[in-house]
TrEMBL record:
Transmembrane segments: none annotated. Gene3D superfamilies: Ribonuclease Z/Hydroxyacylglutathione hydrolase-like. It comes from the Bacteria. This is Putative mRNA 3-end processing factor. GO terms for molecular function: RNA endonuclease activity. It comes from Parapedobacter indicus.
């Protein structure tokens, strides 16, 4: 059996670095070669010479970073293999948002799987998670805590039906806002979704990429003042926070984080990340020899798999 290279991926100031292929994964500072898992700003930054990503990720990055040269994007479909410095890579769907990818890296007979952000829950606004077995699972651990269990999103969204007021609904503009719109359309059919101007272009970009089922309208102030219907005004976080004194509306923020629910009028726990049970489920499916953790505290995973699978936080150089 081939040996796992403990330094195959290391943590640097710029991001996660693979010395064997001389590339970074989701770097936050400009680098020569950036392999980008998905288009959220904490993973996809501008200024790189070359950006390896899926076509939807390239589309979102071009929208957000118009100064990034077009020819810097090297786009690959899921399962389309490419080589960087002798390392063979390909993307598989992560289920986190449209175009999100897990990054499979194969080198000298060992397969390393970098999950990026991922989820197992159903979401008709993005590609479903694809399972790949690997020797090393490099998993996000944002919610890797036995005390955290994400509720069923359908049950959560249906709570809106019990409210008899207009709603100011905060959601991250890319990924979450489109998922929330779709859930409301399907499970709260009596509600009209009015979309903030900061979210509208991303809804339209989703449509251009094939997500055409979303039913929404641009925000109309007059409609939010009517009393004979109960509309939902979907806004990005900064707008939501600036409306803390809004009257005659229910304030709700869609998130898996408990601290983002404290000052709201109703809890709405909808997360686009795996929770504790989902991570354990995924480990069984991937069947790795080792687990490396990123983006969070992996100490609970270390304890859970002690004596069974080696678990460690991805270390720096």
């Amino acid at each position: 059996m081939e040996s796992i290279l403990p330094d195959f991926l290391v943590k640097r100031q710029e991001g996660y670095y693979c010395r064997y292929g001389d590339f970074f994964i989701d770097p936050s500072l400009p680098v020569h070669r950036a392999v980008v898992s998905h288009a959220h700003a904490d993973h996809a930054s501008p200024g790189h010479d070359l950006i390896y990503c899926t076509p939807p990720t390239a589309a979102f990055m071009r929208y957000r970073y118009p100064r990034q040269p077009m020819d810097s994007f090297l786009q690959f479909s899921y399962r389309q293999a490419f080589d960087i410095g002798g390392v063979t890579l390909y993307f598989v769907a992560a289920g986190h948002m449209l175009g999100s990818a897990q990054i499979v890296m194969e080198y000298k007979g060992i397969r390393y799987l970098f999950t990026g952000d991922y989820k197992l829950q159903d979401d008709d606004t993005c590609e479903p998670l694809e399972v790949v077995q690997a020797d090393v699972l490099i998993t996000e651990s944002t919610f890797a805590d036995p005390q955290i269990a994400h509720p069923d999103p359908v049950t959560e969204i249906r709570k809106i039906n019990d409210q008899s007021h207009h709603m100011l609904l905060g959601a991250y503009a890319l990924g979450k806002a489109q998922r929330i719109t779709s859930l409301i359309n399907r499970y709260c059919p009596g509600r009209r979704v009015l979309v903030h101007h900061g979210i509208l272009p991303l809804h339209r970009l989703y449509a251009s990429l094939g997500i055409t089922q979303l039913n929404y309208e641009p925000y109309n102030r007059r409609e939010m003042k009517t009393s004979d219907a109960h509309h939902i005004y979907l806004v990005p976080p900064m707008t939501f926070n600036s409306y803390y004194r809004a009257t005659n509306v229910i304030r709700v923020f869609a998130s898996g984080w408990k601290h983002l629910q404290r000052s709201n009028d109703m809890d709405l726990y909808i997360s686009d990340h795996v929770d504790w049970k989902d991570i354990l489920n995924y480990v069984v499916q991937v069947n790795p020899r080792e687990i490396w953790t990123v983006h969070g505290n992996g100490e609970h995973l270390v304890k859970h798999f002690a004596g069974y699978i080696s678990v460690r936080a991805l270390s720096g150089e």
